[in-house]
Amino acid sequence: MELLTGTMKAGKSTLLLQKAKEVNAKGIPFVIIKSSIDTRDYFARNTDISELSKLNLGYFADEKVEMEFLNRYEYIFVDEVQFLKPEFLEKLIARKLNGAKIILAGLLYDVNEKLWSYFETLSPYLNTITILKATCDCCKKQEAIFQKRFGAVISDDYRVYCFDCNLKNSLLTKE
């Protein structure tokens, strides 16, 4: 089981799609699952919708996905893993234990810098964790590890910051 994580804008979904395309090119059975909670009208910002039509992309409310469905695939790609319910995470663990390759993409921390609960459930089963860094919205360095959201829970109204800019912004808001 592999986890692709990082802040918002770090390229998690893009890397997940790249890995799915590699599996697709080999003709290996796979599925991409994205939680129905994510209602954005794109998968990844830099992905052409016509590219997605060539892949086996499914948008599912996670409680609706049955084991029989998951058993059809050697590779299971899951985007926005932080939104999945514990029951679905257990299904992913069962598939991993039965030989499926599971590649997950999602946030590690919420906007309050608290670890998402899925990580505690899945961490014993993770073989690889890749932490991606976004471009800091302040200084433009490719070192953003903090995220600040403004507005709704699921939206594009957020900023990402490197350590130094996050510290500077935190000090400014306390004055």
* Range of strand content: 15-25%
CATH fold description of the largest domain? Rossmann fold
Structural class: alpha/beta
Number of helices: 6
- CATH architectural designation of the largest domain: 3-Layer(aba) Sandwich
Notes on the protein architecture:
The protein is of the alpha/beta class and 175 residues long. The chain folds into two domains: 2-132, P-loop containing nucleotide triphosphate hydrolases (Rossmann fold, 3-Layer(aba) Sandwich), CATH 3.40.50.300; 133-175, Wheat Germ Agglutinin (Isolectin 2), domain 1 (2-Layer Sandwich). Helix content is 30%, strand content 22%. The protein contains six helices and eight strands; from the N terminus they run βαβαβαβαβαβββα. The strands form two sheets. The chain has a six-stranded parallel beta sheet with strand order 3-2-4-5-1-6, sandwiched between helices. Strands 7-8 form a two-stranded antiparallel sheet.
